[in-house]
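To illustrate this point, what follows is a protein record of this kind.

___
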Amino acid sequence: MSFFTKSTRIRAMGAIFCLLTFSATNCLAEITITLKKEFIESHKNRATTGDIHFTVDHAGKIKPVGSGAQDGDNHNSGRAPEIGLPMVAEIMNARKQTKYVTIMKNHEGKLLTLEGVWRLWCEHGGSSDQIQGETVPPSENTNLDHVFEVHPITSIEGDPLLTSFAPIVSPTTKKEFKYKDASDAFTRYESLKSRISSDSDTVTIVTNMAGYNYVEFLIDPIETAQEIEDGHTVMAKVLDMDGEVLLQKRRMVFVKGTAPEKALLAHKKGSMPLHVIGIPRIDLALVSWRAEHGKERPEVLDWSLPYEVVIVAVKPAVRGEAE
């Protein structure tokens, strides 16, 4: 039997992940994100953006359901003054939300109001610095360099899309998306480096390309869920699908009115872990804390990238550690 727990190995593996899995060039490629402190403070304990005024530059097609990039989403590029960054807005389980895909297409070059999960994550960051508040030109396609997404969209023109927070299954083939393996994904997340600096008005995060969307795992809440304006957050233990502990503590985010939030609120201490699908994002609450305490504790500015996981679907329970 191994002396180390799996959670210990996850952290150890994260430290050498780039050397084992990626080329040196990819590991060293850095992305710089500069955010307004006002934006950080207003979003750090929110699940969603609130209403934003989104000009649709390009409305994408619905992706098939398979693996990798074939995640069943609908990508739409555009601009919103409330965000001030290059961005895309994505409809999850888009084949079941065709009314809203059509609305997006009909609004190319036009303005609409939408709301959704805010997401800062360096999956498509490219090589350009991402500086909030600079002029954002119209995008040429839906594959623009960006670190900000509204993903998943929760409402368009006031109509809710909360039923999209469900396992990704093709309505025609009944095939389910191949989610990322929990051990692989959390090893990658734990390996991400960051450097944080700040001035009177902004915070800058320097980090690396990431990825690993839509990971399947188990969570065992270890604290009482905290209500926020548009949902709940909870600190939880992270387990793989065999019930082995990967992380002892990570913040999970739940959107108000979704099936995942309802499952969280119904969960009883000591019952089986929740079986979930999640997407990672930068944890702005931790970014704020590190920036605020960097002078007296400079080491915190170079800690690994702070992240949390938004739970976008819940699945039937499976046997796990907490059973």
